[in-house]
Amino acid sequence: MGFGLLHHENCGAYPAMDSMNTFRNVCFERPLMICIPARTLVASVVLGALFLVGCGASDSGDSGELGRTPRPFSKDAAGKRIIERKVFTSGERPAPSFDLVDQEGLGADLERYGGSVVVMGFIYTHCPDVCGLLAQTFVNMGSRFGSSIEEGALQLVLITTDPERDDAERGKRYTAAYGGEWTFLSGSTEKCQQVWDDYGVTRTVNSEASYVYHTYKIVLIDENGDIRVDYTGIDDPEAALFKDVEKLLEEKS
To answer: What is the pLDDT of residue 238?
Structure first.
C-alpha cells in the first residue's frame, strides 16, 4: 500500500506507521486519503526529501560505545539535511532548563524530568514532511522501551518549533493521533526561542507558505541532567539512538 497525504487548509498531516508497515493519517477536520503505489511513493519521497532539505552524508556504521563519536559531517543549517552525532561525557554539558507548558496545560521545566533519561526532539504539528519521521521514531521508541517509560526511567519530550500554532490543545490532539508516549511542550515564542537557542535549533518561518524550516534535532539527556548525545539530521537515527538510550539506561541501573 502507498502513502496517503492529507491536504486541508486546517489539517495537519500526521504520518504514522501501523503494525502492517502501512501509513495512516489523521486529520482534525476532514480525512481525505489519496493512495499512491508504493514504488511511486518511494521515488517521490526520496526526490521530495532531497528537494526540500538538500543533500548530505549518512552514517551507515555502528555508532559504537557512547564515548566514541563517528566522523563529523557538514555543519548545521535550517532546512538542510545534515547527519551528525556529538557525544559528551557526564558533567561536560549540563542541559539548559526551560519554562514551557505540556499538552495538559501544566508547567514543564527540566527539573520535572530529573532522575530520568530524557530523549528530546524538536518538531511542529503542521509539518508536511520529515517531522512525521521524527515523531514515528519516538513512537517506535515508546514500543521498544515501554517498560522503562512506565517505570519513569525514560521520558520522551517533543518541543514545538511553531508555538504560534502549536498550543497545548493542538499538542494533545497530535499526541493522541500518534498514540505517543511523549510530553509535547509549547509556550510563548520568546520562551521557545530561548530553548531553541540553548539547544542549537535554528528556525526560519516562511509565512507565505505557512512552513517552518528548522534544524532536525534530537538530544539525549542522562539522569543527572547532562546532555550526552546531540543528533542533528533527518537520516534514520534509530540504529544509533536506540543503542545510546540502552547504554544510558544501563548506566542508570
So the answer is: 72
Type and span of the H or E element at 176: helix 168-178
What is d(CA 186, CA 169) in angstroms, rounded to the nearest whole number? 10
Q: For the chain, how long is the longest CA-to-CA vector?
A: 50
* Residue ranges making up the domain that contains 6: 1-53
Q: Give CA–CA dist 43/25, Å, rounded.
A: 20
3-class SS string, 139-171 = HHHHHHCHHHHHHCCEEEEEEECCCCCCCHHHH
DSSP 3-state of 132: helix
Record the cell numbers describing residue 73, joined without a space: 559531517
CATH number of the domain at 203, please: 3.40.30.10
- Tens-place pLDDT, residues 105-164: 999 999 999 999 999 999 999 988 788 889 999 999 999 999 999 999 999 999 999 999
Choose between 66 and 29: higher pLDDT: 66
Q: Which residue has cell 548506566? A: 251
Q: Are residues 103 and 161 in the same domain?
A: yes
Kindly state the cell numbers that stand for 196: 531553541
Contact 142, 180 (CB under 8 A): yes
**Statement to judge: residues 152 and 231 lie in one domain:** yes
Alpha carbon distance 179, 137 (integer Å): 12
- In the block, residue with C-alpha cell 507548558: 101
DSSP 47-96: HHHHHHH-------S---STT--PPP-PPP-TTS---EEEE--TTTSBPP
Query: What pLDDT is stored for residue 12 in this prediction?
Result: 41
State the cell numbers at 14.
500526521
Please give the grid coordinates belonging to residue 245. 538510550
C-alpha cell at 72: 563529523
